[in-house]
Amino acid sequence: xxxxxxxxxxxxxxxxxxxxxxxxxxxxxxxxxxxxxxxxxxxxxxxxxxxxxxxxxxxxxxxxxxxxxxxxxxxxxxxxxxxxxxxxxxxxxxxxxxxxxxxxxxxxxxxxxxxxxxxxxxxxxxxxxxxxxxxxxxxxxxxxxxxxxxxxxxxxxxxxxxxxxxxxxxxxxxxxxxxxxxxxxxxxxxxxxxxxxxxxxxxxxxxxxxxxxxxxxxxxxxxxxxxxxxxxxxxxxxxxxxxxxxxxxxxxxxxxxxxxxxxxxxxxxxxxxxxxxxxxxxxxxxxxxxxxxxxxxxxxxxxxxxxxxxxxxxxxxxxxxxxxxxxxxxxxxxxxxxxxxxxxxxxxxxxxxxxxxxxxxxxxxxxxxxxxxxxxxxxxxxxxxxxxxxxxxxxxxxxxxxxxxxxxxxxxxxxxxxxxxxxxxxxxxxxxxxxxxxxxxxxxxxxxxxxxxxxxxxxxxxxxxxxxxxxxxxxxxxxxxxxxxxx
Length: 487
Ligand code: NAD
Description:
Elements: E1 4-9, H1 14-29, E2 37-43, H2 49-63, H3 71-78, E3 81-85, H4 91-108, E4 114-118, H5 125-135, E5 144-149, H6 156-166, E6 175-178, H7 185-196, H8 198-201, E7 209-217, H9 226-229, H10 233-251, H11 260-273, H12 282-285, E8 286-292, E9 294-296, E10 299-301, E11 319-325, E12 335-341, E13 348-355, H13 358-361, E14 373-379, E15 383-392, E16 398-407, H14 416-426, H15 435-453, E17 459-463, H16 470-477
Parallel strand pairs: 1-2, 1-4, 2-3, 4-5, 5-6, 7-12, 8-17
Antiparallel strand pairs: 7-13, 8-11, 9-10, 11-12, 13-14, 14-15, 15-16
Helix pairs in contact: 1-2, 1-14, 6-15, 10-15, 11-15
The structure holds nicotinamide-adenine-dinucleotide.
Nicotinamide-adenine-dinucleotide (NAD) binds next to α1.
């Protein structure tokens, strides 16, 4: 792998501490970092290199997948870390940074390849990239890459504006937009599972699939993110990005020798084929919910509007369920039900594929038969379950559903950020969100945002510790289906 300087804006922040340093450490142990690798952490407050390294070490102890117990390995890892003070608005700080980077590149005699990772609030993205451009930090004979975190904009217009400004300093090929769901190992496996297994490939369309259910349930409430979340809601925080990315990754049909360009092209095709939702149809296709007081795992919890720093009158959404249709050759007629919410009964991200029921169609008389299901468990545990019908030897050979269940053992699975940072270092953007996808996703949700804003769709309260408003069940019931695994 090519020598790289990893320039981290927001080096004292929460994301850096919980995800980025542990990911780098695990890549280091797996020998997946470049031989010449240096990290320059940036933050507003004064910090010595030593104090910075000690903060990084602490984060490894708290959050690393592998224990940071071998002092020699930890020391080797930390020796790559330097710190520099930078306030995003101070142009002179970028000059200091440039000198530091050039000095380091010269000292190590390495190619000037620079990766700028913006682990800061989105309000700083434009200022930072403009300053990288103007200061000369982005002028290098090596490569330069920009890594940014969601949110990419607040709606269609602001996303376009943001992208226009970012592209003044970086080309699309140089921008790596992290959607950490794309880094989850099971999501990265979807394309391979589908295209390299004839048994799945043969069934992957509307001839055999009755419906698809994509769920991302969280147990937690708004936590300390009130200021951010109350302006965003489930539709922007989860649906526009993570949930639509899962839909794309599941439904693309790829050739065996697919490339990054194939993946991007096919994802765009899916978004292009998604049936447009008109504002007047939001009420019949989308369920907006907000959690009320309830009980989570035996403990009473307050409702959303009683949470600290949330106004009692807030109509923000903490739950969304939607029905989508892809109007293309493969998926025409298959409903995709997508839901995500906070304060749900359990924590789980999964995709359930429900197959059509030839038994019922052929008039076979067995009440115990269930539809075949293929379940991709994405988190917290990773696994695949296949539900089949079999015979029950104890009950006169009646039909009995059985589950073929595979789960990855915990601890063996790399974290999403490990996969994504490793890919970005290698310049592989397969599992990053391309601008076309981001734009088309905003375009699709825009009528929902407007309907919410204008309050033309109801806000359904649901008890914390349930699976969301009953109206979300109705969404499937009217098509003759139900959410699987709500128990
Ligand atoms: P944070 O508030 O913990 O950290 C922000 C960092 O920005 C801090 O290091 C702070 O010092 C720095 N900063 C703030 N103002 C600055 C200025 N004027 N000049 C220089 N530095 C400044 O935020 P975070 O949780 O680490 O999130 C960072 C980004 O990642 C955000 O865009 C967030 O939406 C996104 N994100 C975070 C998470 C997460 O798990 N924390 C998950 C997904 C996305």
